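User: Quick one: structure for sequence A, then sequence B.

Assistant: Sequence A:
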Amino acid sequence: MINCYVIFDKVGGYTISVKDKLLEFLKLHPIRENQQTNDEKIKLSSIVNFMKELKYELLKANVSIFDKTQIIFCLPVEWTEDKYGNDLRALFLKAGWVNGEDHKNRLIFSTFIERFVLYLQINKNNGIKFERERKYLVFYMDNTSIRLTCYQMQSAKELIAVSKKLALSDFLLTPTILDDESIDLSSFNKIVHNKIEKIFTIRQNTNNRTVKNSVLRRLAEEVLRNLNYICSNMHSAPLATILDYPNFLYSDEMVKEYMEVLEGWDCDTFIKEILNDKDIEQLMYKVVDAYKRILCKYSQVENSPDGIQAITFCDDFYGLRLFNKDLVLVALLDAKISVANSKFINIVDDTMISRAALQKPYKMIQIANALLPPDILSKDNLSLYPNLIEHDWRENDLIQPNSFYVQAYIYENCINFILNKVIAVSSIDNAVQKSTFTIQEKNINIENIINTACDILWNHFQSLDFEDHSNSFSRNCCYEHSDGEFDVENYFNFKANLKILMSNWFQDENMLSNQMLDINQSISTNINSKFALNITCRMLIEVALKPAITNVATVIASTLASNDLFGLYDVSALIIICESKDIVLNKFNSILKETTLKRLQIHQKRPVVFHGKKELLACNLLGNWVNNVNQILGTGSYLQVSSTSYMVKT
């Protein structure tokens, strides 16, 4: 099965059953052309034509960017690039997906273990923490084999050529296979079928009954098909009741014969009898032996940092297949091998695992964004503007070409971050000017500042000793209210009245003068205005507003510092724009800017910080832009074509 996912702004999909075609090509292509039969030549030609048609379908989706995309071919579990890579490259070359002048990395191959491990890295629910140079084990199981793969996490080899610092980090870890063992299970179903038929035959002979061999054979097939259902039911449940063959599927005589054979068996006893088989025991011995061999080789001391850190179980079964999986786990437990966290991850529909293959190219694009100037395509997508970045830019240009800047748009309940890269482009008169493209956008939820300030001030009063405080109201509360009811009622009254007070205060330009800052104002905490708290504007600012604004500054600084967001980019400028109608943010923007700078210094980040569009546009050190300096704001004018990839998964 090949799934071709075209990655544009959205993900689209095509599903075509062609694995047999590929296997046929891989079988015939190594044969020299002068030794191929006419039939073999026709088969090869039809496969190449199929790939050409597939490319045509993808071109219809977006013809303009196909030639600039990278193609990722997801290899099946048993395939390796060393074995099939050259033949697959030849197929893509013949079909016109790549040409002889393309870089080798235009078509790359993703092994199963690589994309499965990448999937585990981005799936936070698996509980595995991957570290550089640590060893791990994958236990893979399907209908025909069990595969044990021991691997070591290392920095991707591509990083070594780019940056020693990145190569020594956990920025892009990929698995290096240390050992790989496979146990053939192709005969497993036949062994189990024969065992079931043998069980029924012996039981009939013991009971002196005569049931046709054809009936026993058909019943064995039915039981084999329902084996996982049998395993999932109560152990003591009668086998005949679990299967419960309806009359409309079989004749009355056949149903009667089936029930006679199944009579006396419960699920637990029947499963145990199946497992009491030398051939099955021999298969499980091979599995346990391979498992022990790898553990002894790579994890001699339990819980050693040099040993295997985690073991992941996965299966490629349609349906639960409890019998197959439980059989293996029981065999390992019987051999006194710990199988903690042995829940199987089912990958039969491994769309997410296949998409994990895109993580490596994506990380490399991040590196390219951070280190290299982009190639700017002309409108007809045919030529490149040459040598744009060599322009001698003034040192006092605060936002230079090939640099990054972040915009933080603050709304009432979220901050919208936009990471842009500055690029140099040619204008009509060949002057070199600046433009932008957007690398990443991220929304971070925040608490409403006014609500946060109200909560902080309420908690401040709650923490005081009300018994000794002149504003005490808890001891005077109505006896008909419980403490909890009283607290909730007073909290909401206090919050509503404080919001009104803040609005009135900050609309008065004189309120922040020294004479007004320390004037007491009462805030009612009760509908009847019976109880009140005294507060000054200075108290509100120092106790509540500054910490609330600091929370926003912390979110902004942390976003720029986090390696999961913008921390890997050398951000030269931060533009903070308040889109909220929140009177607090608009009134105290200087506090936000000052606090943000302090938080950035803690993270050793020192970008130029602009607060508001007015402050940005007033700066005369922004350089020459294609349109005007307003172009700095919002998303970029250019699209990043190189982030588009095609993924082919078999």
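Sequence B:
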Amino acid sequence: MPRQRSEKYYYETVVFEVEERIYRVCRYGFVNWSQSIFCDMFSLPQPEEDKREGDRDENPIKLSGCTKEEFESLLELMYPSEGPGIPIFSKEQWTNILKLARLWDMPKPARIAISKLNELSLTPIEMVTLGKAYAVPEWLKEGYTTLIEDVHGSPLERLMTLGMEIACRILWAQNQVHIRRESIGSTRYCGRCIHPPSGGRPRLRVAALLNGQYYCDYCEIDPTGNEEYGLYG
């Protein structure tokens, strides 16, 4: 009676080549983690065994768009050498993993990398750079907001790493925030407009500024000496 392969525990391997280095790994990691690239690759009709790409060291699947270091970071996450669990990686290694996860349509390693990079405290510049490169909108929002609201300002050399146009936009926005803060710091607010009687959301912008007068330009009520419509600095 011929022997049968286990459908569950008979692992197929695949040979990859990255920057002239050969890797033989289990195929299942790439099939399970990729939503399209490798699933599609391995589902294609295969030629004769001696011509099948990825079966032998002499005929590997050549991967472009990544370095050996980047690929090995992803492999270590897929097949941890230290046993089960998520390995401890540097910021650079997690960035490598995120890059390849986006390149090869791998949502799971992308989520893990984003979570771990959040724990490593990215700088605002890194948030903007990586957020743009690897489609992480929350990093873009937080990075831009932090840079714009930085009261001390970021060195021009650091901003220029984001490109001339973005650096100029950030500098312009920083100036606008500074002007607004100076304006708000020299005015007072009408309690009625900040806390509408209807219970609606507070109006926090220019409409309720007193501009040194004794009445509110917005609601035209004299708030002085009135407990309900007191002044707020």
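Residues 38 and 70 are 17 Å apart (CA to CA). The mean pLDDT is 80.

User: Thanks, that's what I needed.
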